[in-house]
Amino acid sequence: MSYRPIAIVLLVVSACGPAARDRGDDDSCTPGSVGDCYDGVGGTEGVGPCHGGQHMCGPDGTWGPCIDEVVPQPENCTDGIDNNCNGMVDEDIDQDGDGFTTCTGHDCCDSTECTDPALVNPGAFDAPGNGVDDDCDGIIDNPPQLCDSGLPSNSPTPMDYAKGIDLCQTTTTTDVRWGVIDAKLTLADGSSVPATQSHSIRPRFGTNVVPKLGASFIELSTGYAAGEGDTNPAYHDFESGDATGNGTNSGFPADFVAANSGKLPNAPNCPAPDMSTGANDPVMLTLTVRVPTNAKSFTLSTNFFSSEFPEYTCSEFNDFFVVLLDSKYAGMNPNPTDKNLAFYSPPNSTDKYPVGVNLASGNTGLFTQCVNGKIGCAENPFTTKSIATCTSQNDLAGTGFDTPDSGSCDATSVEGGGTGWLVTAGNVVGGEIITLRIAIWDTSDHRLDSMAIIDGFTWSVDEASPGTVIF
Fold this sequence. Notes:
The strands form five sheets. Strands 5, 6, 9, 15, 16, 18 and 19 form a seven-stranded antiparallel sheet that branches. Strands 4, 7, 8, 10 and 17 form a five-stranded antiparallel sheet that branches. The chain folds into two domains: 1-141, no CATH class; 158-470, no CATH class. The longest helix has 11 residues, at 6-16. It has three helices and 19 strands. It is mainly beta. The model is unreliable at 1-25 (pLDDT under 50). Helix content is 5%, strand content 21%.
């Protein structure tokens, strides 16, 4: 019986990620010595074409590569050979129970070909740096797929906004591959269409805020999704005094409010928002996504700016930013019961701060792009509340939020402030279909606009701690 050249065998082994095994007692050896070796999964040596080889000990006292071995590889299905050395020939089965069979399902690792068969199949994503062809496309550790170049800033196509946050792959409800099934742009309650100026896709915001991944990110705003000099939509001052914001209104996300006992959650010791006017100037991106079979969590990069800072910090005038996740996940580190991942909890505390301008209260450390000083002065001119966690104004440069504005708090104040880049994480179940709603709206009035930037959607094979932290 003839075997394939060893170079090809080693390539397939690397792609499938076998558990390396050596017949020596340990990894050290006597330079120049030769030993038997086998890198295939245990129990496969001597089965089908699989057999061991030999390796030589190098000058550094460690073993070199195993030469002339044959280890399990994906089943060929038409050659009459037990390629994966599991005792069966040309089998078309789903031995690892991941929903993909060896032959018609194109599962490159169903039993003996790698160490974690259930995590390797055409429905997986290629986890970076693990030396495994997780998605069975024949390529090990695919570079990140990028799809956000050349997108029009004022695109009316919701799927472009999925691309703008680096969710590139699409799929259908019947396709086994992971990807975006559907995308929608609506108001906060899922109804109607948002104002055209409330959303955009940009290569930068102002001078210094650039994408975390790829060429673009998306902007969602209670006013105009633009910085100084931007067009389509054009820049509109965030503190223009325009009482109509972007001119839209809707209900709140009903399940989010219901999970908070009919209220909008707020930062500790801050007054509740006025809900009587509904969600003012809202915009929401809703994504329906099939999760990769090997994914356990995801992260998003977010950056929030508001012209409500500093005068209306910790007041009933609060622009809300939410990332609502519908998932079946029920393991350790559960997702929030109200589904909102855009929150921060200080270490060793039960307090929760929704992402927004009120992160500037309580010195959370998550509101850093600003001018230190008094906050909340418009509500109480005699307030003693202040912020001391501002580290720079780099992210404000050229955005319009950096315009000098003495306001009622401090003569050195500028028009607004921001969080800087944050990371938002949530847990998922591999292979499930999730719904992700990313929204921003104003409460209590239409004045003083805010902006949320979203980018860098990334899957992970590890569980996460749901919530939002500093990038």
